[in-house]
Write a sequence for this structure.
């Protein structure tokens, strides 16, 4: 999606204010991440396809004008050094962002596992009934049938914990990109004299 959108983004730069393009890109990316916050374990390829394409297209639409605005206010003699600093900052920001997302994902896994573990105990009739049904299904294992049933339930809980954690984690970039849309109010338009593809 990013590859195919690159020439479109380049042409849009000629007719649109870069801030408008960034607004479109940020909004599209936020919508793409918001669509995945309802993730469940039975989503298939096509349910993930549309938000993934939307995020790819949106990212390219906002990435081209970001470069232009970041370097477009500078005199030509400063662009070379500024470009290196810009790339360093972008890479550093990506590393920090991944670390934050990883931390949020781990914390949400702990949270959901604790909550689901609280609700799955032998005191609840539905849990006892489910274990009994699974034990009958695993009756060929003999005395290991109940253990196999409990392991199956544990695997289901672990799967749901991962799915819910990923869904929760998509809230973070959703709100971040919406905040970036608001922040565009404070961004100045780059000078038209600075053109080219940095």
């Amino acid at each position: 999606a990013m590859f195919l959108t690159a020439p479109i983004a380049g042409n849009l730069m000629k007719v649109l204010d870069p801030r408008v393009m960034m607004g479109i890109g940020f909004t599209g990316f936020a919508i793409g991440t918001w669509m995945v916050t309802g993730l469940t374990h039975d989503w298939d390829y096509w349910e993930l396809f549309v938000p993934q394409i939307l995020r790819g297209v949106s990212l390219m639409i906002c990435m081209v004008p970001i470069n232009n605005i970041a370097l477009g206010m500078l005199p030509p003699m400063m662009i070379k050094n500024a470009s290196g600093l810009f790339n360093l900052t972008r890479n550093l920001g990506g590393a920090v962002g991944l670390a934050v997302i990883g931390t949020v994902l781990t914390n949400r896994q702990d949270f959901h596992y604790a909550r689901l573990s609280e609700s799955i105990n032998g005191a609840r009739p539905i849990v006892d009934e489910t274990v009994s049904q699974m034990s009958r299904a695993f009756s060929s294992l003999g005395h290991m049938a109940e253990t196999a049933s409990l392991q199956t339930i544990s695997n289901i809980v672990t799967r749901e914990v991962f799915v819910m954690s990923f869904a929760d984690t998509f809230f973070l970039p959703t709100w971040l990109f919406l905040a970036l849309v608001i922040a565009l109010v404070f961004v100045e338009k780059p000078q038209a004299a600075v053109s080219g593809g940095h």
Q: What stands out?
A: The two ends are 21 Å apart (CA to CA).
